[in-house]
UniProtKB/TrEMBL annotation:
<feature type="domain" description="Secretion system C-terminal sorting">
    <location>
        <begin position="250"/>
        <end position="321"/>
    </location>
</feature>
<protein>
    <submittedName>
        <fullName>T9SS type A sorting domain-containing protein</fullName>
    </submittedName>
</protein>
<dbReference type="Pfam" id="PF18962">
    <property type="entry name" value="Por_Secre_tail"/>
</dbReference>
<feature type="signal peptide">
    <location>
        <begin position="1"/>
        <end position="21"/>
    </location>
</feature>
<dbReference type="InterPro" id="IPR026444">
    <property type="entry name" value="Secre_tail"/>
</dbReference>
<keyword id="KW-0732">Signal</keyword>
Length: 323
């Protein structure tokens, strides 16, 4: 009996080897967008479907596995009902799933490597505004007074997603853009624009990956700039070079509650302004004498610039740290 069992096991093992040896093929999955942005992944446009395909075999069965952040992925591979042809069409409802196909040819069965439906090459547009500290004042949501001669840089937050841009300097008359609209900034097509004049700025852009998919930033996200010679603008002019013996004393530094600034020879400063790292004016004093303490206990911890104007309108700038 034992001899028969050994013989039977050997017979089955040899037949398995024989079948395996006949599987000289390995199915692969292809699709128009597979690997375009990421290896072995499909990234959709907003409304498109995607057709997965493999080589010609005798029979087919497609499988799906849900994505998970855990490694290894313990979700089961589930056969897709009715998915028994050479191709499989997937769409947005299949995002964040893996796919593979099992094929049979001449009594030999093999499986492909998996591919992933990752998501959309799509995000609503967003704009980042960069202003120079000391050259602007925020006067309301999305509106700034900016000093003449300064500049403001606008950047598309998703430059990888969006390609050709249309930049606006006022509210456009039509979306999509219409040639001849006076609000369009001529020649500005990149993902960055630097403004030096008053206006309301925003953009319309088409995605680079899906060129037929375009989006408007939206008027609520436009930023209004008012360039002018505002009262705070002189804080950035007439600065004295400390290397020429015009050092201004600031102590203690870092400070917790009070700071003292100035030189005895100056006696009185017409104006002392403290500006935070974002360029916002957070404290200001008029007619300050050099030996008076300035209470900074209400300021948040961080780095600040003190701008002082003496009786002769000379400007001094110093940094200090609030602990």
């Amino acid at each position: 009996m034992k001899t028969k069992l050994i013989f039977l096991s050997l017979f089955l093992f040899l037949n398995i080897l024989k079948i395996s040896a006949q599987c000289t093929f390995t199915p692969t999955i292809t699709s128009p967008r597979l690997g375009t942005q990421f290896p072995n992944k499909i990234v959709f446009c907003n409304t498109e479907s995607e057709i997965l395909s493999t080589q010609t075999y005798g029979s087919y069965q497609w499988y799906k596995q849900a994505w998970t952040s855990q490694s290894p992925n313990t979700n089961p591979w589930v056969p897709i009902s009715g998915a028994t042809s050479q191709t499989l069409t997937i769409n947005g409802s299949d995002v964040l799933n893996y796919f593979k196909v099992e094929v049979t040819l001449n009594d030999c069965t093999a499986q492909s490597a998996s591919v992933m439906a990752d998501g959309y090459a799509y995000a609503l547009p967003a704009m980042m505004t960069t202003l120079t500290p000391g050259t602007y004042e925020n006067i309301g949501p999305g509106e700034y007074n900016v000093c003449n001669g300064a500049s403001v840089q606008f950047d598309d937050v998703f430059p990888v997603l969006y390609g050709n841009h249309t930049w606006y300097k006022c509210a456009p008359s039509s979306i999509p853009p219409v040639q001849g609209d006076p609000c369009i900034v001529a020649g500005a097509t990149g993902d960055t624009y630097v403004a030096t004049q008053s206006g309301e700025y925003g953009f319309y852009a088409c995605t680079a990956y899906c060129p037929d998919q375009c989006e408007f930033l939206g008027l609520n996200s436009f930023v209004k700039l008012n360039f002018g010679n505002w009262s705070f603008c002189n804080l950035g002019t007439g600065e004295t070079d400390p290397k020429k013996g015009n050092e201004m004393t600031v102590y203690p530094n870092p400070a917790v509650q009070f700071i003292f600034i100035g030189r005895e020879s100056d006696k009185v400063y017409k104006e002392v302004s403290i500006i935070d790292a974002s360029g916002r004016l957070v404290l200001q004093k008029k007619n300050h004498t050099y030996n008076q303490p300035i209470d900074v206990s209400g300021l948040a911890t961080g780095n600040y610039i003190i701008v002082s104007k003496d009786s002769k309108d000379k400007i001094y700038k110093n940094k200090f740290i609030k602990k």
